[in-house]
Design brief:
The structure holds two protein chains of two kinds.
Chain A lengths: L1 H14 L6 H12 L7 H8 L3 H10 L11 E6 L2 H4 L3 H12 L12 E6 L11 E3 L2 E3 L4 H9 L4 H9 L1
Parallel strand pairs in A: 1-2
Antiparallel strand pairs in A: 1-3, 3-4
Helix pairs in contact in A: 1-2, 3-4
Chain B lengths: L2 E6 L2 H5 L2 H14 L4 E6 L11 E4 L4 E4 L7 H12 L9 E4 L4 H4 L17 H6 L4 H7 L3 H11 L11 H10 L6 E6 L8 H8 L1 H15 L3 E6 L4 H16 L15 E6 L9 H8 L23 E5 H13 L1 H5 L2 E2 L2 E2 L1 E8 L5 E6 L4 H8 L9 E6 L6 E2 L10 H6 L8 E6 L4 H15 L5 H18 L4 H18 L3 H5 L1 H10 L13
Parallel strand pairs in B: 1-2, 6-7, 6-9, 7-8, 12-16
Antiparallel strand pairs in B: 1-3, 3-4, 4-5, 10-11, 12-13, 14-15, 14-16
The chains are: A alpha+beta, B alpha/beta.
The complex binds flavin mononucleotide, iron/sulfur cluster and FE2/S2 (inorganic) cluster.
């Protein structure tokens, strides 16, 4: 936890003089830790000369900023209209059922966090999903299952590449 | 010469497997010792053909698509034949790229370079008339640049269609040491991807347009507010800004003009409302994206309280084209008060989805039938939603409306950012109306009660109508709720969510259980 907070303190130093630097900072913290821990709110507030409530207010306004840890892979299903017209509602219920979780939840093995997203700009080849920074087009149930089955635990990746 | 084999690196092409394809293609070319090399280009926006492979030789540029990994061998056989001067016989062969009907029928101005070459290669950009508009702008006064934009008739492409020249004039006329150019790249509407395509396939055009805007109004700092749902556009914009800065097109003393223009990309954080310009400015300032009351206009008190131009990606891109080709030639395109070209984005349940740039004035039907060739499912088209989640659902009787801002306003619909979402006859329009309310619940900034609370009530009331609980009274309630939202909301989020809801009710009432036994 201390190492984490040191890291965050450095980031605060780096972003506090940037005009409108709070969002870039929150993105950077999320990038480094996967979430924005409650414990960082105090030092963010101090660094940016804001009240804790103000910082809380900003974090809670944006869908991207989660305050709880998430799984190793973020799987987002597009819920917007173009994807709906191509059957995304079925993908959505299939995903929830096969993973056994609702939106905002993480599988018990810590592998996948499921989230809704409203358009990925891939609407000519819907339905679309995003896994981490990769986007997939024309996803149906079996393609979804295949993509999920290909996901690795990061530790396993490391073992593979170092051997 | 060595033949160039182009494989696009844009989000949709990659989402359909273009990266893996490019890798395998390069390996197979090597093992066959073919005189060809793989290059990554942007996309032409003919997304139903992606991954589309183009082969460029001295005399021609031909295409195949959609190409999957399993087609590589046979496509390479065909390329082999082609390079040997033989004719091509392949089921995926599309002929000369520029002659593909879908592309040949368009009037490409803003997207003329998309897919032609490597998006971040500066010399290719310059070779295709890039930075010519900027060179002209540098030799003009701010007022002269603004006059060009005014004369072109260019209206904002983000949705509200406000005349760009008038906005620029206001910023030019407002005194201030510090002014800003903000590009709205939040592109939140479902069914839209034109901003993304431009940023991924021709990012320098946006950079050029923003720099021209900076010169016009006297702003030396620009921000691109990009939605976080576009990770690839983010990367490419940052690369392009770096290269343009190194080459002297951005930064201090651009092109030895004595003028500065600095540019930075800022990421949104998954909030649709941050596409609304004042919410966007709040967000850029590091705050909650609460919509501001207008006045003051952002042009007078915008980012950090300074005079600010906020324009959509396509508006700024068009500015570069207008300066390059002249405002008279731009305004030759279009109809009525809608001048120039519209980037139509054809999406949803459609056979041939993609980017279609056309002069204003074509009808919706010509786009959906002529370009789209019907639905992906092969079933009849039932409804079309144009203009994103706040746009009305249009029944067949309205498909002959010409694409022109005023004509659409007359039928209580909107062109918005140009997105068209097609639904086939299995669509449940009551479910779509419910979704419109639900979306408003999720994305409302929370400032006004009719939007924040009204949308939640809206979902419940629609559920009761569909569930046949006191249907008649709940229908009256829904209309009253829509009236309240329309009249009592500060911005179009709450103010226009009733449009899709009411149009679904009016034209597709049987889906709500009303008159369900009526013959039709
Ligand atoms: C709810 C809402 C969402 C909007 N989303 C966007 C958007 O994603 N992109 C955009 O360019 N304009 C969007 N707009 C329009 C902007 O408020 C503004 O009109 C536009 O950025 C001005 O640029 P333009 O004149 O070049 O269109 C939105 C408006 C509203 C009310
Ligand atoms: S209408 Fe909705 S989104 Fe717009 S300002 Fe009001 S509460 Fe915010
Ligand atoms: S609506 Fe799903 S990608 Fe645009």
């Amino acid at each position: 936890m201390n190492a984490k907070n040191n890291n965050v303190d450095q980031l605060i130093e780096q972003y506090k003089t940037l005009p409108g630097g709070l969002l870039p900072l929150l993105h950077a913290i999320k990038h480094a830790l996967g979430y924005i821990p409650e414990s960082t709110v105090g030092s963010i507030a101090k660094g940016f000369n804001l009240s804790r409530a103000e910082v809380h207010g900003v974090i809670s306004f944006y869908h991207d900023f989660n305050t709880q840890p998430v799984g190793h892979h973020r799987v987002q299903i597009c819920r917007a209209e173009a994807c709906q017209s191509m059957g995304s509602r079925q993908i959505e219920s299939h995903a929830k059922q096969s993973l056994g979780i609702e939106y905002g939840e993480t599988t018990s093995d810590g592998m996948v966090t499921l989230e809704p997203v409203y358009c990925l700009g891939n609407c000519a080849c819907s339905p679309s999903i995003r896994i981490n920074d990769d986007i997939y087009a024309r996803v149906d149930k079996s393609r979804f299952d295949q993509l999920i089955s290909e996901l690795n635990m990061p530790e396993l990746d490391k073992v593979e590449t170092s051997s | 010469m060595t033949a160039q084999v182009f494989i696009p690196k844009d989000t949709t092409a990659v989402a359909l497997g273009a990266d893996g394809l490019a890798l395998k293609m390069a390996q197979n070319i090597e093992s066959r010792s073919l005189d060809a090399e793989v290059q990554r280009n942007g996309s032409r926006g003919m997304f139903w053909l992606e991954p589309m492979v183009e082969v460029k030789t001295e005399s021609s540029r031909i295409a195949f698509g959609p190409v999957n990994a399993s087609d590589i061998e046979s496509v390479l056989d065909a390329i082999d034949d082609h390079l040997a001067g033989k004719s091509i016989d392949h089921s995926l062969y599309l002929g000369e790229v520029e002659k593909i009907d879908y592309l040949a029928k368009q009037q490409r101005l803003t997207f003329k370079r998309a897919g032609v070459g490597d998006p971040i290669c500066l010399s290719q950009y310059q070779g295709l008339s890039g930075f010519k508009g900027l060179a002209k702008a540098i030799s003009m006064t701010g007022q002269e640049i603004v006059d060009e934009i005014k004369n072109s008739g260019l209206r904002g492409r983000g949705g509200a269609a406000f005349p760009a020249g008038i906005k620029w004039q206001t910023v030019l006329d407002t005194p201030g040491e510090q002014k800003y150019i903000v590009c709205n790249a939040d592109e939140g509407d479902s069914g839209t991807f034109a901003d993304r395509l431009l940023m991924e396939s021709d990012p320098y055009q946006l950079i050029e347009g923003m720099t021209i805007a900076g010169l016009a109004v006297g702003a030396n700092q620009g921000y691109i507010y990009l939605r976080s749902e576009y990770p690839f556009a983010h990367k490419i914009l940052n690369d392009a800004i770096k290269r343009a800065t190194e080459a002297g097109f951005l930064g201090s003393n651009i092109c030895e003009s004595g003028k500065d223009f600095f540019l930075e990309v800022r990421l949104g954080a998954g909030a649709y409302i941050c596409g609304e310009e004042t919410s966007l400015l709040e967000s850029l300032e590091g705050k909650r994206g609460m919509v501001r009351a207008k006045p003051p206009l952002p042009a007078i008190e915008g980012l950090f309280g300074k005079p600010t131009v906020v324009n959509n990606v396509l508006t700024l891109g068009a500015a570069a084209t207008i300066l390059e080709q002249g405002s008279d030639s731009y305004k030759d395109f279009g109809m009525g008060r809608s001048r120039g070209t519209l980037a139509v984005q054809l999406a949803g349940n459609v056979k041939q989805g993609g980017l279609i740039e056309l002069a204003f004035g074509t009808t919706l039907r010509e786009v959906v039938e002529g370009f789209g060739c019907g639905t992906h499912s092969g079933r009849p088209v039932r409804a079309i939603q144009m203009g994103g989640p706040l746009g009305a659902f249009l029944p067949e009787s309205q498909w002959d409306t010409p694409l022109d801002y005023e004509s659409f306003a007359e039928i209580k619909a909107m062109i918005g950012h140009g997105g068209i979402v097609v639904f086939d006859d299995t669509a449940d329009m009551a479910a779509q109306a419910r979704f419109a309310m639900e979306f408003c619940v999720v994305e409302s900034c929370g400032k006004c009660t009719p939007c924040r609370i009204g949308a939640t009530r809206g979902v419940e009331v629609i559920d009761r109508i569909v569930g046949d609980q006191d249907r008649d009274n709940n229908l009256i309630l829904l209309h009253e709720l829509c009236d309240t939202m329309e009249l009592g909301s500060l911005c179009a989020m709450g103010g226009m969510t009733p449009f899709p809801v009411r149009s679904a009710l009016t034209y597709f009432e049987e889906d709500f259980g009303i008159n369900s036994r009526r013959d039709h």
